[in-house]
Amino acid sequence: xxxxxxxxxxxxxxxxxxxxxxxxxxxxxxxxxxxxxxxxxxxxxxxxxxxxxxxxxxxxxxxxxxxxxxxxxxxxxxxxxxxxxxxxxxxxxxxxxxxxxxxxxxxxxxxxxxxxxxxxxxxxxxxxxxxxxxxxxxxxxxxxxxxxxxxxxxxxxxxxxxxxxxxxxxxxxxxxxxxxxxxxxxxxxxxxxxxxxxxxxxxxxxxxxxxxxxxxxxxxxxxxxxxxxxxxxxxxxxxxxxxxxxxxxxxxxx
Length: 254
What we know:
The chain has 254 residues and is of the alpha+beta class. It has helices at 8-15, 17-48, 53-76, 92-107, 128-144, 186-191, 206-217; strands at residues 88-90, 111-117, 124-126, 150-159, 172-179, 221-226, 232-239. The strands form two sheets. The protein has a five-stranded mixed sheet with strand order 2-4-5-7-6. Strand 6 and strand 7 form a beta hairpin.
């Protein structure tokens, strides 16, 4: 018997939002039930300090990912607001230091990771959980572009966008993810980030599109450079935080 391709959006609309939400809630509940013993085992390993320092960092990263997965499933229960942002002040250097074990665990031992940032990098205004999800999404894409291993550089710098597609008057923090993978042709690069387009055999194209939407909703930008055989660099341009000015100290000149 032939089966029509499953159209998830149409099925949810046909069944009604209440029924769809009930099924989703059941899936989230079961997912969290499976996740709980995994976290428990990881925490036991963390407390026992088994393995090398590198292995312990990966355990820390796995625990962090597990907790983030739990948060993400709760957000799925209200899928109407999946991209709703709650921007706050984010120190990108601190985020990268905390997130490095997560990235290292995600890419595996065949890919060498290097994180670069400056100590005086100004904070940005962005939703931190959404930024973490976007960063992990791009890191996983970079890993998939290096099936035989390679190098991955995640860097944060203060710059002004200058490309024709990404012109911006103000300085921003450029958070870049650069891989030494297979790269993309100009024709493919033009389509990247569009709905339903993916360079992967079974990809949906939603990952990069979601990253772009999340950035644009928060006054950020996305730019990509790539060449076949020379790797790809994806840049997330993040707006600087508007910090309140400090009151003048006694005796200072106004």
